Amino acid sequence: MNRRRVVFWGVVLMLAVVAIAAGCQPRSDAIVVATDATWPPMQFINEEREIVGFDIDLMRAIAERGGFEVEFRNVAWDGIFAGLEAGEYDAVISSVTITEERQERYDFSNPYINAGQIVVVRMDSDITGPAALGGNVVGAQIGTTGAFEIQRIDGAELREYDEIGLAFEDLAAGRIDAVVCDTPVAADFALQREGYRDSLKIVGDAFTEEFYGVLVQKGNTELLDKINQGLAAVQAEGIDVQLEDQWLR
Predict the structure, then answer these.
(1) Domains of the chain by range and CATH?
(2) pLDDT tens digits along 197-230
(3) SS3 per residue for 141-192
């Protein structure tokens, strides 16, 4: 090989190495966010194998207004908190309820949604919310907040189920009058699932408080401030309400 060819291919190789190195450099304004994409409509994998859902759209809007980029990583629920502690990713958005116990170990963003208990009925029902459940048979999963709340309602007859899907089967078949469950679960069955979305509806607003937040490592105030800044802008613009209408109503 002559000297010119050696120099030419040497330059090509050097440029390729530089390009690869540049492509591997992480962007300073990008964060990796973990989510367990198995809980529609909050976060799930669609037919195109993309991670989609309420949490995903919300986090993208937060990132845009907070001045950073975001990359999602699908992580199983049983390891999602340990991965955050180990620094495998920067944040978690996965329908995580803000609790005192969790706040001792992680820092949460400001709440972004109340995903408390809500009522689902058939399309032809005149039940308008929890206050109208007296005198009706109401289904819930055994041992859940929904079951406990039904017991507090005067005149409501609780029917418990091992799995919430069985309650929705009975509701659709007319064997019970309503179901009480978490707002995202209600949206999944009543709005997303074929066979139910044309026959069931959500009525009223969430009547218990179960707030979700974005998690970061304890003490990561810089990232937390960016997330809260973006979330505040999202809420001020009403984008969170638009996403609720899209995914949860």
Answers:
(1) 30-113+212-247 (3.40.190.10), 117-203 (3.40.190.10)
(2) 899 999 998 999 989 999 999 999 999 999 999 9
(3) ECCCHHHHHHHCCCCCEEEEECCHHHHHHHHHHCCCCEEEEEHHHHHHHHHH
